[in-house]
Structure formats: structure tokens, C-alpha cells
Amino acid sequence: MRLAAGVKLIVQGVAVLLVGAPLGSALFGASSVGIGTLLLVGLWTPVAGALVAAGALWNAFSVGHPWDWILLATLGAALALLGPGAWSVDARLFGWKRLEIRPRKSEGPPPS
Fold this sequence. Notes:
- By secondary structure, the chain is mainly α.
- The chain has one domain (2-93).
- It has helices spanning 2-19, 23-41, 45-62, 66-82, 89-94.
């Protein structure tokens, strides 16, 4: 999922930068390339995923053909919620955290 979203963002950003778009679009294209690179390597994945979702939703409502952007926003939200995965810089830096759920202590018989 990180690969698909990252490549899509980098391709979109480079296409916008090569066209010679106005300053606002060029800044959005440059940020797309940066966020796509963060997703590809798996660095700050929850933050990058949230930025992808926000930017894609912005484009879905401001640019025609919203379905590509809605798909990208869904991928970004899923990445923000799921995290980086095993093969990422985040996993190497911070490691995996295992949550162990302990059973409740019994406090006597249940009330009648």
C-alpha cells in the first residue's frame, strides 16, 4: 500500500513540476514528491498518511475527476491508521511494540 501511494504521489508531483504550473500548484507538487518519498521509505508513516488523505481530499473537491483522489485519500487514511509495516525505516528506528492483554483479576463473586 505504501508503494502504490508513494509512487502515485511522486509521479503526480513530478508531472506538475515539469509542466511549469503556477506557484501554488508547484508547491503542492513539491510537497507531493516529498510525502511520496516518506511513504516509500516508511518514515513518519502515520503523519505522511494523514497529509496524503488531507491533500487528496482537497484535490477531490477542487479538481475534476475526483475518483483517483478519493482512492488516494483512502490509501492515505489506511496508512495513517495501520502504520509503517515491517519493512520501513520507522520499524527499524522504533521497533515493533507488542501489546499483551492480561486477563482481569477476579474481585470475588458477581453481584446477585
